[in-house]
Amino acid sequence: MAHFCKNCGLLTAPYDERCPKCGAPLPHIPMGEALLESMRQSPEGTVETGEPLYEQDLEEDRIDAMSQGATTAAMLLFAIPIAGFVLAVVWSFGGTQDPARRRLARAYLVRALVVAGLVILFVAVAAMVFTATLHSQLAYYYYR
Questions:
Q1: Could you give the CA distance from residue 15 to residue 29 in angstroms, rounded to a whole number?
Q2: Cα–Cα distance measured from residue 2 to residue 13, given in angstroms and rounded to the nearest whole number
Q3: Which of these, 45, 61, 43, 63, lies nearest to 53 by C-alpha position?
Q4: Which of 7, 20, 80, 120 has the CB geometry, 3.0–4.6 Å to 84, for a possible disulfide?
Q5: If you average pLDDT over every residue of the chain, what do you get?
Q6: CB-based contact 56:87 (threshold 8 Å)
Q7: Chain center to CA of 65
Q8: With helix as H, strand as E and coil as C, how does 13-40 read?
Q9: How far is CA 19 from each of CA 14, 26, 27, 114, rounded to the nearest angstrom?
């Protein structure tokens, strides 16, 4: 829960009794004493204090990056029109053991599907405009 000084508006820690900026007394919000002590001992934030862990990486979530050469080679393979799309589908759904390559293939696949959707939308709108224009021109000559 965020605590703000009513005098100057500074965001303060929940265990502060006075504002560090202006010195105004802060209202006491009842909390468990064990939680207050753990927050005083580790202000950088841990799982126990409930504070966010912005700068700490969890080791099990880390994926080593691909080398520049491997990334370039994968992008060149993806550039082959039909084979690149098939390769991206295979790598996205388990055709590789490398999690970085799988992530790259999934990103390429998402990008390819978004581009294909936009092209289909553009062609559909262009076809409707062409059809409407052709219809209006034919109607103009027919009723003239």
A1: 9
A2: 8
A3: 45
A4: 80
A5: 80
A6: no
A7: 18
A8: CCCCCECCCCCCECCCCCCCHHHHHHHH
A9: 11, 7, 10, 51
> The tokens of 32 are what?
């468990």
Whether the CB-CB separation of 74 and 101 falls below 8 Å is answered with yes
Structure-token pair, residue 131:
């059809």
Residues 143, 10: Cα–Cα separation, whole Å: 75
CA distances from 90 to 25, 69, 95, 100, 124 (A): 62, 20, 5, 14, 30
* Host H or E run for residue 68: helix 68-78
Helix (H, G, I), strand (E, B) or coil at 115: helix
To the nearest 5 percent, what fractions of the chain are helix, strand and coil?
55, 5, 40
Neighbours of 19 (CB within 10 A): 19
Cβ neighbours of residue 15 under 8 Å, at least 6 residues apart?
31, 36, 39, 40
Residue 69 identity (one-letter amino acid): G
Paired tokens of 111: 């990008």
Q: Do residues 38 and 49 make contact, with C-beta atoms less than 8 angstroms apart?
A: yes
